[in-house]
Amino acid sequence: MSHFVEVILPLALDKTFTYQVSETEYKYIKPGMRIAVPFGKSKMYTALAIETHQNPPTLYEAKEIHQILDENAIVNEVQLKHWQWIASYYMCSIGEVYRAALPSGFLLESETVISLKQGELVDEKTLTDDEFLVFEALQYQSSLKVNDVVSILNKKNVLPLLQKLIDKSVVSLQEEIHESYKPKLVKYIKLHENFSTDERLNELLNSIKAEKQKELLLGYFQLHVSEKKPISAKQLIDFTSSNSSVLKKLIEKEVFEEYHLIQDRTDFNEVENAKDLTLSQSQQKALDEIKNHFTTKDICLLHGVTSSGKTEIYSKLIQETMQTGKQILFLLPEIALTTQLVSRLRKFFGNKVAVFHSKYNNNERVEVWNQVLQNSPKAQVVIGARSAMFLPFSELGLVIVDEEHEQNFKQTDPAPRYHARDAVTVLAKFHQAKVLLGSATPSLETYYNVENQKYALVELFERYNNTPLPEVILVDLKDSYFRKRMNGHFSDTLIEEITTALTLGEQVILFQNRRGYAPLLECMTCGHIPQCPNCDVSLTYHKFKNQLRCHYCGHSIAKPTHCHQCSSVDLTTKGFGTEQIELELATLFPNKKIQRMDQDTTRGKFGYDKIIDKFQNREVDILVGTQMLAKGLDFDNVSLVGILNADNMLYFPDFRAFERSYQMMAQVSGRAGRADKRGKVVIQTYNPNHNTIQQVTHNNYIGMFKEQLYERQIFKYPPFFKLIKITLRHKEYEKVKESSMWLYQVLSQQLKMPVLGPEEPAVSKIRNEYIRTIVIKIPDSVSLQGTKKTIQKVLNSFDVISQYRSVKLVVNVDFG
Ligand code: ADP
Ligand code: ZN
Ligand code: ZN
Question: Where is the signal peptide (predicted)?
Fold first, then answer.
């Protein structure tokens, strides 16, 4: 009798594979254990067992496995079920999901490159003979492939040994460029609460004899009176020309207390525990409503305006779920996963919070994986970006998706191209866990589900502290240019408002969205931007062909010589970036500290956190940035937000442009006027009467929702139609053209629904490959699964056409 194990390989192959095992192995193997297996002529992979059986494969001779790598399953059955759902819904292979789900340190294979871990002192005595051989080899060679290790040790089964060396921090995977993620906290000093009365203060001053300590204390009072803001330890020491040991003595004596500014911002009374956190009346009401809804519905949307204290409500809910012993997953868009938020939650939940961040190195990710696997209290709450949903939860009780509208939840490359918000609701269902989606500006899809009563809704339209939402001032750029009231890209109004804010010692955020590759063509006289007659998008200027094109239906016209609206010949291509704004600011406000935040300035190790810290610590007066600024940041001294050009966003060629513009503008506006003062937002635009701009001005989310929903229906977009985009790429122009035409024709014949394309995207050549796209719009009324099956069949028949075999195909379900 033969024994077999069925495994998933971490490859884009659409099936499972059968390997031969001994009877002992057969009895030992459990689904979810990793197994090193040979594949092809000389490759080795880390496969995942999904079942054992006694049916030999019919199409090939089963090879023997190399070795079982785990003593216990590291992946559970709910995960496997979830992976299957992802593979089927997002039309990719289960192997691709497996590869994406596990930290790469779990997936050693013959081609994996290892090298000595930098900066680690290795005690050679702790190494076994084989381990030492590898260590020694790496002294002479900066890196080795796993295959090389196989020959050095002259044995096949090297993965467990390598895993040990990784655990011992002797070697690391070469692909790792990650830095470990350490929140930077700035130390601040305040007077101990024992001395809150004048009387006690006098006693204190009389009681301190040491001259140096007295000087420091007096210096503190002086600073306290003049600065009226938090005093950092460094500032105090500098100011009094003292040193840290003197300060330390005063802290030991409980004269001073130290604290960290990142942990507390608006008010400086720390909330130490979620239990002590008191919700405002309306927050409490919202929380009660959520819990109430959860008795009948599994998914609830918390629609709460910016600064309403959604995080506080989440915290309470997390705390209550913790008491049931269940696990909690808190998903955030990558960029919002700041030290700011992490420390806020750590403050409530201490060491029960694990963070799963792409900035984490492999060891750290493996560690969190294992903690979750063992259902360790250290990881009862997991905060993470989208990939955290792949962790091996066994008893998930609650999932929170904050800023659920963020497009960042969708993975673009490589497969699986999943949307974490949607995929995690399926996972939650498997666990019978509740899902809370939170946003000040919910996605159309989510709000549509609320309207259809699929999701419950809880609204919170009051900011914490009752500060009103900011006042929005619209500046008509057309008019301002005409009256020569512009200085570069700044209107008189914006300059005045900036000046006022800075004079009061307040900070300013300026927003310039520079998204988009090819700029738009715009009329300088009337602001008109040519639109596609068939679609709800603006045309994009293609410099190379001197054309205006629609990215959705392929419609194109030659670049006009004059404006179709007002006949002006004053046409210009549009697009100015943050860099230009930064330069202009330097001339306008030469004595102020200006900081730019965009992809270029946040590239470094902790670039993003550094800038946030600097701004938070008030070392920067004006922060200029791209949409990065919109992501749930909470600053306590920003009174003014300026949006330099709202039209950039509005006319981005995307069916979601208006929705996204609304979200973006409402979110950046939300950064203005937090604590006790109403903020201001200045929006510069050529189209002050544009519906979306008006909706932002009046905080009219429902108006935006209704209007956009109507448009989506008319133009056949989500949530009424599901979109699937197929991208074809090849080095030869003719081959892409021909093959995409073939695919388009077959799909149109087979599917009774709109199939658009094949379209040449705006960036029609990347890395010497030509690109064409086809978009399929699947109406609500037809079976999604059935349609996907048909599409898959067509794709399979495409694959067997020999002259098209080299064409690369990418399928993106729910793209955008
Ligand atoms: P949102 O996420 O809804 O934009 P936040 O959760 O960031 O709002 O809250 C805004 C500010 O108000 C934060 O500084 C937060 O600490 C403070 N805050 C909100 N609710 C409370 C509360 N119940 N107690 C103390 N501070 C609160
Ligand atoms: Zn015009
Ligand atoms: Zn079009």
Answer: none
Residue 266 counted as domain residue: no
User: Are residues 681 and 582 located together in one domain of the fold?
Assistant: yes
Which among 431, 447, 465 is the end of a domain? 465
Residue 558 within any structural domain of the chain: no
Residue 262 φ then ψ, to 5°: -60, -30
Residue of 400, 464, 465, 637 to test ligand 1 pocket, by largest number of atoms within 8 Å of CB: 464
Residues 6+ apart with CB under 8 A from 40: none
Residue 627 CA to residue 206 CA, distance in Å, equals: 54
- Can you give the pLDDT at residue 274? 54
**According to the model, what pLDDT value does residue 46 have?**
94
Query: In sequence order, what are the beta bridge partners of 542?
Result: 547
Q: Which of 30-39, 701-710, 765-774, 780-789 has the lowest mean pLDDT?
A: 765-774
CA distance 471 to 682: 9
Q: Identify whether the C-beta of residue 382 lies closer than 8 Å to the C-beta of residue 391.
A: yes
| Strands of 256-260's sheet in order across | 231-232, 187-191, 256-260
475 and 612 co-located in one domain: yes
pLDDT in tens, 533-561: 776 667 877 666 778 877 666 788 898 98
Instruction: State how many domains the chain has.
Output: 6
Cα–Cα distance for residue pair 573/542, rounded to 1 Å: 10
Residue 499 has pLDDT above 50, yes or no: yes
List, for residues 235-252, the tens digit of each pLDDT value: 888 888 888 888 888 888
How far is Cα of residue 520 from the mean position of the Cα atoms in its chain? 27
* Host domain of residue 696: 471-517+576-710
Closest by CA to 813, choosing from 307, 422, 352, is 422
Atom of ligand 1 nearest to the CA of 308: 3
* Amino acid code (one letter) for 129: D
Q: Does 270 have pLDDT greater than 70?
A: no
34 shares its domain with 75: yes
Half-sphere exposure of 439 (CA within 13 A, CB side): 28
Q: How far is the CA of 634 from the centre of ligand 1 (A)?
A: 9
Averaged confidence pLDDT in the chain: 87
CA distances from 9 to 21, 176, 239 (A): 16, 22, 62
pLDDT of residue 359: 67
Domain identity same for 120 and 163: yes
Domain co-membership, 674 together with 794: no
| The pLDDT value given to residue 142 | 82
Alpha-carbon distance of 216 to 294, in angstroms, equals: 55
Kindly report, residue by residue over 640-688, the tens digit of the pLDDT. 999 998 987 888 778 999 999 999 999 988 888 756 778 999 999 999 9
Residues with CB under 6 A from ligand 1: 265-266, 277-280, 283, 304, 306-312, 464, 634
Question: Is there a single domain that holds both residue 98 and residue 132?
Answer: no
Q: Any residues with CB less than 8 A from the CB of 153 and at least 6 apart, and which?
A: 130, 133, 134, 161
Size of the chain in residues: 816
pLDDT reading at 808 higher than 80: yes
Cis ω before 160 (30° cut-off from 0):
no
DSSP 589-609: STTS-EEEESTTTS-SSSHHH
Residue 415 located in a structural domain: yes
Q: Are the CB atoms for 682 and 642 separated by under 8 Å?
A: yes
Cα within 13 Å of Cα(200), Cβ side: 9
Q: How many angstroms separate the alpha carbon of residue 656 from the centre of ligand 2?
A: 25
295 and 367 fall within a common domain: yes
Which of 659, 686, 710 is a domain's end point? 710
